[in-house]
Amino acid sequence: MIAPIFRQDIIVNKNIHEIIDIMNKATFRPTLSVITRRSFVKGFEFRGSVWSDGFCVIRNSDFQSSLAPMSKASITAINDNSCEIHFEIGPNMLTVIFMSLFAIGILAIGATAICEIITHGMVGDTVLIMMVFILFASMFFLFLRLGFYSRYKKLKSRMVELLS
After folding, report:
1. Which of 13, 62, 90, 152 fits as disulfide partner to 2, beta carbons 3.0 to 4.6 Å?
2. Domain spans in the chain, listed from the N-terminal domain onward
3. pLDDT, averaged in runs of 10, over the chain (164 residues)
4. Do 91 and 2 form a contact (C-beta atoms < 8 A)?
5. Under CATH, which architecture does the 6-91+151-163 domain have?
């Protein structure tokens, strides 16, 4: 299950079978549910599942990353020569839960640092708490910037290009 960050509906001049055929050729389906080295086979752009009216895939270049964006699509036929594709891109729901817990921890450290600064000023332990807050806040920012944004932008542009 994904937590969609990006949603888009595209109407294309291809029938549903052509879209599924394109995704079948570009998607590797791992036989095991556990990710191993054999889960990443060269020659395929995506890994995941493709079914008769949609797909759920991850880029094959994202090697064992829980921050990897997932793309889930459902395809509806409009007529014989066109169809509507509703696709969503987002992280795994479990990743969102753990990132939320991490953000709550950062906010707790920040609140503690502000209370200590107001109470005692910038002395001793307060400086240490402030340094820990700055360290974890910068790590969180880097996770969001490098882990999410660039990969989601690449997947979004590639999916629009591939499906159009």
Report:
1. 90
2. 6-91+151-163, 94-144
3. 86 91 86 60 81 88 70 92 91 86 86 84 79 85 75 84 82
4. yes
5. 2-Layer Sandwich (3.30)
